[in-house]
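Look over this one:
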Amino acid sequence: MSEHVQNKKNKSEHINVARIKKGNEHFEIVIHPDMAIKCKSGNASVSDALVYPKVYSDAKKGLLASEEKMSELFGTDDYLEVAKQIIQKGEIQITAEFRKQQVEQKKRRIIDLLHRQGVDPRTKLPHPIGRIESALDEAHAKIDPQKTAEEQIPVLLKALRPILPIKLVTKEIDITIPAEYASKSFSVVKNFAKILREKWGSNGAWYGTIEIPGGLESELYDKLNKITHGNVQATVLKVKGEDE
């Protein structure tokens, strides 16, 4: 049984897939790569990541995977559950064009983060955006399109420091979130910051002390203010520079 994967140009070689091998069997799904990457990190649903609601043994040839083999090797023949396992445990393959776009987007994000939170330890002033970009190029820094910009900062700093003296500023902040917004806001805080201390009040409010890169502070406040309609309290306790 087969079902041909087609696009508007009938160029199946341009599809993006995620794949996994189990035993001697290959399983593939056709994906929206940006959503699949988000799904892998828990920020999108499996259904949003799929172009077609199918699991293939060879997506380019349009050959569907055996439901019997899926049941045997994944414990289910439900395509969504199998697709989830493929995205989480398999390999996300992307086209050269998409990779190039993602690398450029991540590079812009990385430069922005370093500009907002990185300082020259000699002058205590931030580096200009153009200087950071040229230093990244000079260091031949490799940008991973499948990792967030934030995840890549520590590795990139090691590559940059022989060329560009830089350290990061971090802040320790007390945050209080009212009960009606606490549950949704808590997940945002976890994504942005390291939680040093926390407690839930008897009224359902959340009280926490977090550590966050200085450049992400305003972005965190923006997101929390949108959720809480401005009903969030934050007090900066300490500002410190990370050692080189």
Remarks:
- Residues 6-12 have pLDDT under 50 and may be disordered.
